[in-house]
Design brief:
mainly alpha; Arc Repressor Mutant, subunit A; 146 residues
């Protein structure tokens, strides 16, 4: 990729991030129910897929230090989105799972995310939509850690 292409891509990605993750007026996150916090949102998504997991497991998946993830868990527990119980296999760890409120919040996050994706895709023809999805899947595969 040329430097010009990288600069153009950076500008476009920065604009999309600002619009969809910072601008709370135009596109509020979680249907306006929760401010955007990438660690909170990714933690909720992970716990939906892997209930009763430890904070350390989430930290490893997200690539953050355990103390940072523990602070995220504490915040989500305090907000009533996550419950903490004794871990089924480790006496030293705690298990975390989404509460009913947490599941409801994650559903709002996903609905909002899908609405945002549809907004972006609406600028393209159906053929262009297929092409950009294919290209982004290719990029994701190349940068995703195993």
């Amino acid at each position: 990729m040329t430097s010009r292409n990288a600069q153009s891509l950076l500008q476009s990605v920065n604009t999309l991030l600002r619009i969809f993750t910072v601008d709370e007026q135009q596109y509020p996150s979680a249907e306006g129910r929760m401010r955007y916090n990438p660690l909170d949102f990714q933690t909720l998504r992970y716990l939906a897929d892997y209930p009763d997991t430890s904070a350390a497991d989430v930290a490893r998946f997200l690539g953050v230090v355990p103390t940072t993830q523990q602070a995220v868990m504490d915040r989500l527990v305090k907000q009533g989105l996550v419950e903490r119980t004794p871990h089924p296999t480790s006496k030293r760890s705690k298990a975390h799972r989404l509460t009913e409120t947490g599941n409801d919040m994650l559903s709002a996050i996903i609905r909002q995310d899908l609405a945002n994706m549809n907004t972006m895709l609406s600028a393209l023809t159906p053929e262009e939509q297929d092409e950009i999805v294919r290209m982004l899947e290719k990029i994701t595969s190349a940068v995703e850690t195993p």
